[in-house]
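Example record used in the benchmark description.
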Amino acid sequence: MELETQKIINLHKIDVRLQEIHEEKGDLPELIKEQKDEINDLSSKISDSDSQVAELEKEKSSCNTSVKDFELKLDKYNKQMDSVKNNKEYDALLIEIDHLKNENDELIERIIEIEQSIEELYKEKEKCNDKITNLNEKLNDNESELNEKSIEFSVEEKLLLKNKNGLLSSISDKIFLQGYKDQDKEMLASIYNGSCSSCYTNLPAQALVDARKGMELIECPSCSIFLYFDEDR
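Model output (structure tokens):
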């Protein structure tokens, strides 16, 4: 077998083993990422809630100040009632007092709305905190499990990656290397029981003979993937 072909086959075998290790870890890496993202989203909601509460408290304080001012203004108008000179002035004062009372009623109503909104925000914040607590517990368990699995495969995985980088730097076939980097799907597959292990198509007898010679990679007549005969299988 030509050295270049053997390097390409060895590279594929390394990728297969790395994929097996990844699958051994299961969906834990993805699950951990999802849990972290959800915790970040919940934390952002809590931060937004805190900002909204601060703004509402500020508005509530302003409304309460205006309500206190109402008492002073109302007292002022009531005193003016004692000094009115005619019905026109009296009616004008009554209109001002009614207008002032309506404004005050609106302020009180707004204060009630603000307090209800703040209460709802605190309840939502509490729910978010509970969810974060539960997620952190699950996250810690998943990270511990993944860490155990990572330790189990860490030495082998590091060695495989080192050998992979070495092969990539030693392969001179630029066309292959470009395709290897650009394509999302596999470029190679092994022959298993006389069939392509990628699409499971039975291969012609001559193709099997050529593959056993190992001089070069053959192409699957069905899926066009490059095939090699794996003596280890």
